[in-house]
Automatic annotation (TrEMBL):
UniProt KW keywords: Cell membrane, Glycosyltransferase, Membrane, Transferase, Transmembrane, Transmembrane helix
Domain Glycosyltransferase RgtA/B/C/D-like, first and last residues per copy: 54-209
UniProt-annotated location(s): Cell membrane
Protein name: Sugar transferase
Length: 473
């Protein structure tokens, strides 16, 4: 019965709708606060820059748009939408490659991994890259098979969007380039050069921004991949094992012979480049540089993994059952685990801080800024009705939007400073004092364990007495 539902085009919509509704609604109900990466992206997106101190701009722009349109629910919906769009393009790619094949290709195999459900709750650059890479691969395949200008142009557009989402996508674009030169004879095709020209043209505003801002985003990206002093071979193996962990649910299916390798697919150079080679990109990088990478960077390498397999016994039921288990695990863990940031009542915190800001500045028309710690500051930016500009870490170098106009506006505005500790607070106040004269400071604490002890869900949680600090200057 389940097989018929999923394989029937008219009924497969039901399962997609169920997936979208659960992973959009349940986190929204069980969490008091959006995840760190998500609130951070929204606070960046509010400034509408061509890049930011940590990441290129696309994820921030999209996060801001969905938040403005649908509130907190919109960000969870956005994550599920990314996975759904990726599934569509993987299927289209599979249909294009194997339209004459008698084999049953489990293109949806990547959904076995909890990465695409539990982890995907937190919208960030890695989640946004999943549909963009999928679309880029699909349009690349159309470009080299049908050789129509519109597909080469679409390839350029989606490749640009990939780079504007995350720089690691350049590794995939490099794979496209190598394959097109050596296996698609693209070097003699004028449309190949057209695509490259459009790609560079679309990327130019971002490159100009990077030049004008001392390449701050690239510096951060390089800093995230640090030399661990480990043996390079060990580091490469560690990176590869991390990728295999993401694909771990596939192993039992191979053992019990529900899956076998698709020889037809593995004979295609395109499949080798798109499905197999990406699994070795990050380990090779670690081997050459000795630098570490984050396991979640590799999720884009897993999207097309189903194309190298042939389904021997139907595994759709297993995917459905596993995803039901993932949903149950997420619900129980989120509801009953000890107090974490996801339980932090962001709206209540902002309400208390804002009441102090109004007491300090009776005229509610005064501008408000927030400065200090990234998570707390982003929460105030996201949940405050005025959406105040966030002066991240009170550091001018990290805030390209902290223009001369805003610096001149600082002395006559309310500045909310937030921190996790007294030493951190003193550091932030000292930095803010460069732009605003400060006569006296009253630091207050917000003990979220005490404030939220009457919440229904909170009664099932253990919380150490912890507090965060804030002041209004």
């Amino acid at each position: 019965m389940m097989e018929k539902i999923l394989t029937n085009k008219n009924k497969s919509f039901f399962w997609l709708l169920l997936y979208i509704l659960f992973w959009s609604l349940v986190p929204c109900i069980l969490r008091n606060s959006l995840p760190l990466d998500t609130v951070e992206a929204i606070s960046w997106g509010h400034e509408w820059q061509m890049s930011y101190n940590k990441h290129p701009p696309l994820s921030a722009w999209i996060a801001e748009i969905f938040f403005l349109a649908m509130g907190s629910f919109g960000l969870y919906f956005l994550s599920t939408l990314c996975i759904t769009i990726a599934l569509y393009f993987v299927k289209k790619t599979s249909d294009l490659l194997f339209f004459n094949s008698k084999n049953n290709i489990p293109y949806y195999l990547f959904l076995l991994s909890p990465v695409f459900s539990i982890y995907a709750v937190e919208f960030n650059v890695n989640i946004l890259l999943i549909p963009l890479i999928s679309a880029s691969i699909y349009f690349y395949l159309l470009s080299i098979t049908k050789n129509e200008a519109k597909y080469w142009i679409l390839l350029a557009v989606f490749s640009t969007l990939c780079v504007l989402a995350k720089y690691t996508s350049i590794l995939f674009i490099g794979i496209f380039f190598i394959h097109s030169i050596f296996y698609a004879n693209a070097i003699k095709n004028w449309k190949f050069y057209l695509s490259g020209a459009i790609f560079l043209m679309l990327l130019t505003p971002h490159l100009i921004w990077l030049y004008n801002n001392d390449f701050i985003t690239i510096k951060y990206a390089m800093a995230r991949s640090v030399n661990t002093q480990n043996n390079r071979i060990y580091q490469a193996l560690l990176t590869f094992c991390g990728e295999m962990f993401l694909l771990l649910p596939i192993l039992p299916l191979l053992i019990v012979k529900r899956l076998k390798f698709n020889k037809e697919a593995l004979s295609l150079n395109f499949v080798k480049f798109i499905c197999v080679l990406p699994l070795f990109v990050f380990p090779l990088y670690a081997l050459v540089t000795g630098n570490s990478t984050k396991t979640m960077w590799s999720i884009i390498c897993c999207i097309f993994i189903g194309l190298i397999f042939q389904e021997r016994k139907n595994i759709v039921n297993i995917i459905i059952i596993l995803n039901i288990i993932y949903a149950g695990m997420y619900s129980l863990i989120t509801a009953f685990r000890p107090f974490t940031r996801s339980d932090f009542d962001s709206e209540k915190f902002v309400e208390i801080v804002n009441s102090d800001a109004k007491l300090t500045y009776e005229n509610d028309s005064k501008n408000i800024y927030v400065a200090g710690e990234i998570w707390l500051g982003s929460i105030i930016n996201v949940y405050h009705k005025k959406r105040p500009s966030f002066f991240i870490n009170a550091n001018e170098e990290e805030n390209a939007w902290f223009t001369l106009d805003k610096q001149n506006d600082f002395p006559k505005s309310a500045i909310i400073v937030v921190a996790n500790s007294e030493s951190e607070m003193n550091k932030f106040i000292k930095k803010v004092s460069k732009y605003k004269s400060i006569s006296s400071v009253e630091i207050k604490d917000y003990n979220y364990c005490k404030v939220q002890e009457k919440d229904f869900v909170f009664k099932f949680k253990k919380c150490k007495p912890e507090k965060v600090l804030y002041t209004v200057l």
